[in-house]
Design goal:
Radius of gyration: 32 Å
Shape: flat
Helix content: 25-40%
CATH architecture of one domain: 3-Layer(aba) Sandwich
Bound molecules: adenosine-5'-diphosphate, magnesium ion
Number of helices: 25
Structural class: alpha/beta
Length: about 725
């Protein structure tokens, strides 16, 4: 059997023309899959080492090429119909002589005669070494993602792999290599080791290639065999996408200051009839003494809730920073257009009945979008509950909101109802600065708001509860900057539809959507919360206390059992019990009852009293090795500790309180929380919060969090 020779192509050194040539050929064949020899040409072109290859079109061709490469050789079928070659008998390894090549090649041509074959790739048999897999997949939200892992059973069975959103720097590549469980195998094990420097260069080159060529959809180098000196790419496949969808990376970061601190607000759809949503929103604005000038708009009213009303926006003789629109969906597009014509800068569309209801709603939303674009106006919503900014006394919510304290926590929530429920309860133990509900995100999205919160001096800690993320690449870029300044915690519902995606590459099948979320958050420095409680447990700690500057903790407890539990979790979360200096030990022993042996945890048993507790903490504050405290308090006498705790000068060393069954002593707990002490019902959470705070402080260039700087000044 003979195969028609492939057309000859002008050779070029420039990788872009080689790309054009190879992708053009694939397109001509109506393929999105680049064959192994094509992939290897592209890789070699940018200096990546492969086994080499030559495509034979006849059996004698294969024998001749083998002789010239040198035995042993490997034969592989080259066909667009055969993606996974060895599964269908398309790989013959370790062929030692001409006879073996002749027999293997004849057999392959026969076995694949019904497939569209371009020939047989003849290549050197690579020496054994440590097999790794390198891959790339393109996530619809975050863009290209790089995968690395050890090959064979490590990836197939143990799923010992790691991912990074591209682009990456060398530091990130180092972290990837080190975080797989099989890292010791790479570093060196019983005399075998891997040339980590060349492996790193390979990973960098692959990342570059993928960011340079947006039509690479998926890529697998599986396996790459690594040696103590260099590596060789044994197999490669690339899937290309002819429709390249560009992911927005340009940082469109408009200044949203006046959106959060407007000088004037018009409420289109304000109502004087109690029970209507337009009544609630206006009531909230008045009741909280909003700092903006307020203009209720309603064609049927002269006065709304005691404030002069206007028949239309055009009657208002003032410039409007923010217009809130709360009218039925059908009337919304006209209301938005009226706002635009008036020159309103930002519109908060609280009306519902759009994309969340289906196709028709989506179309109406698109229509609004084009109006906004025409006038250069920006909008939040629809289907949201607006913004709360306690520092501007501004509550735009649809539901009645009780009095709120002015706090340093920013919250971005997808749904208004969620935010309302959270605020109703949490306002007892924590104070928010800004709460923004984003709804259908027709324009302003979580990233825009995150960017503002990052720059808003009233905000020290950021929480997000998101169901989806728009333009993930920009989100990661903005989050990286923000987390450098402020701890940011996210609760993101994980989608589990990864299995449903039709993917050809190994990498894409290993990269579940939620795994990509995880890695995107980690790369951005965002802490991912397990659930709602976890998010606000961490937020309270960050918002109320400075971050510890050493990992040593002093545990003080009224019960040994919870002291042990705290200790265990500290070590599990990479913290430790601190060690008092000898003179401090002596001073502590003097105040402890005789039966107390251990100086950390300090276990007072039932005799712990407020004065001793205060003295113990003050001794700990003096120790260089103690960076923070966990204090386990007895619930039934909780109030007796408040006065002494309030007196302590803890000089930037955080104190976490643990009160078992705290939900049955909420009045006392709220009093302690209001003094600035986070109270947890179990020592594990207290230890975990300290560990996250310590990690956060250590991970940033500047050692002190915003909370710390404010406390110091
Ligand atoms: P596929 O992944 O399409 O089944 P590969 O080219 O990866 O095909 O080949 C299957 C296996 O054969 C590889 O995982 C590797 O273990 C081995 N192999 C393939 N080519 C070579 C080669 N040139 N040298 C050594 N081993 C090879
Ligand atoms: Mg393979």
């Amino acid at each position: 059997m003979e195969i028609a020779p492939a057309a000859t192509h002008p050779s070029s050194d420039a990788s872009s023309s080689l790309w054009e040539e190879i992708v053009g050929e694939a397109r001509a064949d109506d393929r999105t899959y680049l064959l192994e020899p094509e992939c290897k040409r592209l890789l070699e072109d940018i200096g990546i080492a492969t086994t080499g290859h030559e495509v034979a079109r006849t059996v004698e061709d294969a024998v001749r090429i083998s002789g010239h490469i040198g035995y042993p050789v490997v034969l592989k079928i080259v066909s667009e119909d055969v993606v996974h070659k060895s599964d269908s008998g398309g790989v013959k390894l370790n062929l030692a002589d001409a006879e073996a090549v002749r027999a293997a090649c004849t057999g392959m041509f026969e076995a694949f005669k019904d497939n569209n074959i371009k020939g047989v790739s003849v290549q050197k048999m690579a020496k054994p070494g440590t097999e790794v897999i390198i891959g790339v997949t393109r996530d619809p939200i975050f863009g290209p993602v790089l995968m690395f892992g050890l090959g064979g059973i490590f990836v197939e069975v143990m799923k010992d792999i790691t991912f990074r959103i591209l682009p990456v720097d060398e530091k990130e590549i180092d972290a990837m290599l080190q975080e797989i469980k099989g890292y010791p195998l790479l570093k060196g094990y019983r005399g075998h080791s891997v040339d980590l420097r060349s492996l790193k260069t390979l990973l960098m080159k692959v990342s570059r290639m993928v960011t340079d060529h947006p039509h690479i959809k998926e890529l697998d180098l599986n396996p790459v065999i690594c040696y103590p000196d260099g590596y060789t790419v044994v197999d490669a496949r690339i899937f290309v996408d002819n429709k390249v969808t560009s992911i927005v990376t340009a940082p469109i970061n408009p200044d949203l200051h006046d959106f959060f601190y407007p000088r004037s607000i018009a409420l289109v759809g304000a109502s004087d009839t109690k029970g209507k949503l337009g009544w609630n929103v206006f009531h909230n604005l008045i009741h909280h003494h909003c700092k903006a000038r307020l203009y209720p708009i309603n064609p049927k009213c002269e006065v709304i809730q005691g404030v002069k009303a206007y028949k239309s926006l055009s009657e208002v003789d003032d410039s409007i920073d923010v217009a809130i629109v709360i009218v039925p969906a059908a009337a919304t597009p006209a209301a938005v257009e009226e706002c635009c014509k008036k020159g309103v800068r930002y519109i908060v569309i609280e009306s519902a009945g759009f994309a969340e209801l289906g196709e028709e709603g989506k179309r109406a939303q698109e229509q609004i979008k084009s109006v906004l674009k025409k006038y250069g106006c920006r909008a939040l919503g629809p289907n949201c509950s607006g913004v709360i900014n306690t520092h501007h006394n501004m509550v735009q919510s649809i539901g009645i909101v009780n009095d709120l304290g002015k706090g340093n926590i920013g919250l971005i929530a997808q749904a208004g109802v969620y935010a309302a429920g959270i605020l109703w309860g949490l306002r007892h133990v924590m104070d928010f600065g800004i709460v923004a509900t984003i709804g259908n995100k027709l324009d302003i999205n979580e990233t825009d708001i995150l960017h503002h919160l990052g720059n808003d001096d009233n905000i020290d800690v950021i929480c997000m509860y998101l169901e989806d993320i728009t333009s993930g690449k920009r989100f990661v870029d903005v989050a990286r900057e923000v987390t450098e300044k402020k701890p940011t915690i996210i609760l993101k519902s994980g989608r589990t539809d990864a299995g449903k995606k039709a993917v050809m590459s190994h990498t894409a099948s290993l990269a579940g959507d939620d795994k990509i979320n995880d890695i995107a958050f980690r790369q951005s420095g965002i802490i991912r919360a397990r659930n709602n409680d976890h998010m606000f447990d961490l937020a309270r700690a960050f918002a109320k206390q400075p971050v510890p500057i050493t990992d040593g903790v002093l545990v003080i407890t009224y019960t040994g059992s919870l002291g042990v539990a705290a200790t265990d979790t500290l070590y599990l979360s990479k913290m430790r019990l601190g060690e008092l200096e000898p003179d401090l030990k002596k001073r502590l022993k003097e105040i402890l009852p005789d039966y107390v042996q251990s100086l950390n945890p300090v276990d007072y048993s039932f005799t712990m009293n407020p004065k001793e507790l205060r003295k113990t903490i003050e001794i700990g504050v003096e120790s260089k090795d103690i960076g923070s405290f966990i204090v386990v308090l007895q619930t039934e006498i909780l109030d007796s500790f408040t006065a002494e705790l309030q007196q302590i000068d803890y000089r930037g060393k955080p104190i976490m309180l643990c009160v078992p069954c705290k939900e049955f002593a909420m009045d006392a707990v709220i009093r302690l929380e209001k003094l600035g002490f986070p109270v947890y019902s179990n020592p594990e959470m207290a230890a975990e919060a300290l560990s996250e705070m310590y990690k956060y402080g250590n991970s940033r260039k500047s050692q002190f969090s915003a909370v710390q700087q404010k406390m110091a000044s």
